[in-house]
Amino acid sequence: MKKLKIYDTTLRDGNQAKGISFSLEDKLAIARKLDQFGVDYIEGGWPNPTNPLDIEFFVRARKMEWKHARIAAFGSTCRPKADPAQDMVLKYLVETQAPVITIFGKSWDLHVTEVLRTTLEENLRMIRESVAYLKKHCQEVVYDAEHFFDGYAANPGYALQTVKAARDGGADVIVLCDTNGGQLPWDIEEMTAKMIKELGAPVGVHLHNDTGTGVASSLAAARAGAVQVQGTINGFGERCGNANLTVIMAALQLKMGFQLVSDDQLKGLRGLSLAVSEIANLADDIRQPYVGEAAFAHKGGAHIDGVMKIARSFEHIDPSLVGNARDFIVSNQSGSSLVWDKIKAIQPDLDKRSPQVAAILADVKQKEDEGYHFEIADASFQLLARRKLDMWKDRFDFLGFRSIEERRENGEVYSEFTIKLKVGDEVEHTAAEGNGPVDAMNAAVWKALRRFFPVLANIEVIDYKVRVLDNNKGTGAKVRVWISFHDKTRPEEEAWGTLGVSTNIIEASWLALLDGINYKLLHG
Is the residue at 474 inside a domain? Predict the structure, then answer.
C-alpha cells in the first residue's frame, strides 16, 4: 500500500483558532491521544520566552515515552543579517531537544521586501543557512514554505529559488504552504507535482480552509505525490481553520489506498475527534464526515429499509471502520458492535446474547441519549460495564452531601461542601472549603476517602470542563462535566477521563468525580 506521513499541528495552528486556548495539560493529553492513534508527527508549539507554556511542553515531552509519533518544535528562519548560531529563535528551538524542528521562511517577494524589509538575496541566505544549522542539531528538519502558492503566482522564479535554498540547506521535507487558504484543489495538485519534479526532493503540503476546500486540496496533493500532509484534528485553526486531518486520514486510507495506521487504530478516529473537541471545550460537529454523530444517521423510511437490507446501498463505508455507528433515527436503534468490542475486552468468554450484555447496551443507549459520550470517558464506561457484569462493587456508599455558597459583607464568596459517606461499617461525615462549590466538593471527597484508601493520596484532577448540552433552556440547561485524573507517582500511565450529566452542575460534577475515584480503586 502507498505510504504518506501525517503531520499534526493541532497544538499550535489549532490553538490559534478563535475560542480555543489549550493549557499545558490539554496539549499533553491531546499529544498522547495523537500518538496512540498513530500520527507520525506532533508539532508541540513555538518555544520562546513570550510563550513559556510551549517551552514547558517540550520539557515534559522529553520525559515521556512516545509509541510512534515524533515531536516537532516550530519556529522561523534566523533574522535578517543574523548568524544562525547566534539567533535566539533558533537557539530556543535547539534547546527543546526535539527530534524534529520545523521552520518557516518567506516565499513571496512581497513579504520579503515589505514585511521582513530585507533583500531577496538575504532571504535566500536566511533560509539556506538556518536549515543547514538546524540539521546539525536535530534528526530531521521540515521546511514550511510560507505563502508559497501566492508567492509563486507573483514571482515564480523567486519562489522557486526559496524552496531550492531550503533543499540545498538539507531540509528533509519541503512543505508548500497555502497560508492564506485561497487556492483550489486542481491548482494545488498541479503545483505539487511540478515542485516534486523541479526540486527532486520530498514535498509536503500545509493548507488552510478559507475556500472550504482544504481537505480536497490535501487529497489532491497526495495524489500528485506529496509525502507529507499537515493539518489539524477537526480542522481547528485560524480564520476558517486548517485542513481537517480527521477527514483527510479516513479518505486517504479508506478511499485512496494509503496505509497510515492499523485497522484497529483507525477505529479510534471518532474517539480521537471527540476527545480533542472535549479538551478544547467545543461542541463536536455532528455532521462532520466519517466521525460525526449524524454521519451515518438515517431518518427517511426508504433509506432505513435499504440499509437494513444491504448497508452499502445507503452508506459509503462501514461506519465501524472509523469507530462510528449507524443510527436509525425513527426507530432510535444505534449500532452496538463497538460497545460489544469493549465488553469482550473486559470478559472475553461472555455470550453476546446474554442478559448482561443487553443490560449494558440498554444503559449505554440511555446515557448517550442523556448526553454522555463514552468515547471520551472510557473510565466511566468500564465502571458501568463491570457493575452490570458483577465484576465491580463500589467500595463505599454515598449517604448525602450539601453545598453552601455564601457571599459575606466583605464581598468574598464562601464555598463549603459537606459530605457523608459509609465505608464498611464506618460513617465519615466531613466538610471542606474551596474556590467555588466544585473545588470544595473535590477537597471534601479526598479528605473523606484518603484515610480509608491510601492509594488515592497521589491522585489529582488535572482538567475539568463543563459543556452546556441544550442552550435553548438557558440557566435550566443540562450540562456535561468531563474530568481528567492522573496519578502523580505514575507519570508513565495515561490519564483517565470520566463524565457526569445533569441539569445540576454540582450533581454532574459529583458523578464524574466519583467515577474517577472508583476507577482508581478498581485498578489500584
Answer: no
pLDDT digits (tens, 9 = 90+) for 92-107: 999 999 999 999 999 9
Closest CA to 460 of 472, 445, 474: 445
Residue 286 lies in a domain: no
Find the length of the chain: 524
State the CB neighbour count (10 A cutoff) for residue 158.
Answer: 18
Closest CA to 42 of 30, 53, 26: 30
Task: Determine the Cα angle at 92 with ends 88 and 96, to 5°.
Answer: 165
**Number of structural domains, the chain?**
1
CB atoms within 10 A of CB 114: 9
Report yes or no on 34 lying in a domain: yes
Q: List, for residues 383-392, the tens digit of each pLDDT value.
A: 999 999 999 9
> Which residues are CB-contacts of 36 (< 8 A; sequence separation ≥ 6)?
67, 265, 268
Q: Which residue has the cell 480542522?
A: 235
Question: The CATH number of the domain where 221 resides is what?
Answer: 3.20.20.70
Which parts of the chain register pLDDT below 50? 330-335
DSSP state of 446: H
Alpha carbon distance, N-terminus to C-terminus of the chain: 43
Q: Distance of alpha carbon 26 from its chain centroid, rounded?
A: 9
Q: What are residue 259's phi and psi, to 5 degrees?
A: -100, 100
φ, ψ for residue 354, nearest 5 deg: -70, 150
Residue 253 belongs to what domain range?
Answer: 5-261
The residues pairing with 72 across neighbouring beta strands, listed in sequence order, are 43, 100
Burial (CB < 10 A; 0-12, 13-18, 19+), residue 318, is middle
Distances (CA, A) of 179 to 234, 267, 399: 18, 31, 58
Give the C-alpha separation, 462 to 487, whole Å. 10
Q: Specify if 62 maps to a domain.
A: yes
Q: What is the model's pLDDT at position 331?
A: 38
Contacts of 66 (CB under 8 A, 6+ apart): 35
CA distance 450 to 75: 45
Place of cell 465505608: 423
Parallel, antiparallel or unpaired: strands 479-487 and 459-468:
antiparallel
Cβ within 8 Å of residue 431, ≥6 positions away = 416, 417, 418, 419, 444
pTM of structure: 0.83
What percentage of the chain's residues is helix, strand, coil (to nearest 5)?
A: 45, 20, 30
- Tens digits of per-residue pLDDT, 49-66? 999 999 999 999 999 999
Q: Mention every residue, 6+ apart, whose C-beta is less than 8 A from residue 270.
A: 290, 291, 322, 323, 324, 375
Q: Among residues 69, 74, 59, which one has the least CA distance to residue 11?
A: 74
Question: Treating both helix axes as pointing N-terminal to C-terminal, what angle do 214-224 and 185-199 enclose, rounded to 10 degrees?
Answer: 30
Q: Which DSSP helix (H) or strand (E) runs through 192?
A: helix 185-199
**Angle at the Cα of 518 (from 385 to 387), degrees rounded to 5?**
25
Rounded distance between C-alpha atoms, residue 334 and residue 114, angstroms: 57
**Residue 134 backbone dihedrals phi, psi, to 5 degrees:** -65, -30
Helix (H, G, I), strand (E, B) or coil at 1: coil
